[in-house]
Amino acid sequence: MRYDALIIGGGHNGLVASFYLARRGLKVAVLERREIVGGASVTEELWPGIRISTGAYVLSLLRPRIINEMNLPENGLHVYNKDPGLFLPLGRKNLFIWNDIKRTQKEIEKFSKKDSLAYSKWIKFWDTFYDLADFFMLTPPVTISDVGDLLYRFKGSIDEENLSRIGRTFLQDARSFLDEFFESDEVKSALIEDSVVGTFASPSTPGTAYVLAHHVIGEVNGIKGMWGYVKGGMGGVTSAMARACEKMGVDIMTSTEVEEILVKNGEVAGVKTKDGRIIESKIVLSNADPKTTFLKLVNDVDEEIRKRVSALKSKGVSFKVVGYTEELPDFGNGKSLGPEHVASELIMPNVDYIERAYDDARVLGYSREPWLSINFQTSVDPTVALPGKHVFSIFGQYLPFNDRLDDMKEKIAEITLEKVREYAPNFKPVKYEVITPLDIKRRFGIWEGNIFHIDMTPDQLYIFRPALGMSRYKTPIKGLYLCGSGTHPGGGVTGAPGYNAAHAVLNDLNV
């Protein structure tokens, strides 16, 4: 069996890469070890009639160009707006963050009139990033000098203060960054979650301002900054992608685990599957993380490359508790469906709370009081549950990866559910499942269960992602490319790594 290009892993980036290669006439196959495509963007029926997004759970960062060129809506993708986006339960005074700026400003006024005015400056600042999003995400990584040239190009159209902020965002910590805009700890707490998602860092760790920036430059249904729930769960994204790929002639092989990437005389020759099949190709794109690719799938790796890849920071720290209830949580506004159930409900009362959770994890190996983001898919999408049932997904941190996390599941469940009940005493799941970084490793095949494949810290971004010499999707092995979240621009359901890697291949082939 022979193909022009093979993609290892049927996650969203692998599917995006296969689409663009096949669109240029290449014969392409996607090899997925699980029985379903989607990688960490899947919907799974954990209990009869209850369909859960076991990995990614909300959508915003998928680039509009990819959505349009793959015709994803025509292939079944439908996204519901998540508005309000955030809800911070704080007792007598709760805080909603809406897509409507003026409505959010009225909310913020409850805590600070100064911050209410500053919020419009905050939104205006990110407009520049929205305008630059495709430049940063759908092109190979820029160098430090490129950033300087870019900032110089905008000199005059952006005031000096914001120009300085844009430059510092790449290295600054999120806490001091938010301090430049706001005085109220409640407002800062509501906005700081995105800076530490998936990252073993606290809000005061340098580089977390960029992680924040990475998460706020998305859109849903043409609305900037909006996040959404995908109809049918996150598998709705990748099932639509799979349909688009199949229309282009891509062969998608599920239950096909790659055991080895075959290399002869420094060049790719194809792959060997776990059931012993040899599939030949001069081009292989690995949607697996860099460590899995070089430390597991390639047997004959140069010692220098092995050292470099082994040193990458990849420890996963995120866990999930997923399940369903028979009534919605009452955060003080009642059990009936309300805007707080549409929003991501954030259990992080102040910034210091997140700092303590991080400190705990470093010392104890888990957070005694984790920060949590709770989402109810059924608040807008009844298709994922039986009538009268409410599907929930709780994302939490910090729980650093180790091989003994199965022993921690009962404790993590207890800590998490008790914490939610501090704010909504009636929260009682009928069924639930704890998904630790160890489970993420086993379920999705990600090294140490890191949802971004490797950390998104300054030393592992842009030309340093995953490492010098491999930052533009090529590897030192001729014909082997990387196309997963461990490459530029990083994690999240963006499709950008797959898009960029495919175009790197096409440029090399001069197709």
Automatic annotation (TrEMBL):
It comes from the Archaea. One of its GO terms (molecular function) is oxidoreductase activity. Interacts with COX5B; this interaction may contribute to localize PYROXD2 to the inner face of the inner mitochondrial membrane. Probable oxidoreductase that may play a role as regulator of mitochondrial function. SUPFAM superfamilies: FAD/NAD(P)-binding domain. This is Pyridine nucleotide-disulfide oxidoreductase domain-containing protein 2. Residues 14-496 form the Amine oxidase domain. InterPro entries: Amino_oxidase, FAD/NAD-bd_sf.
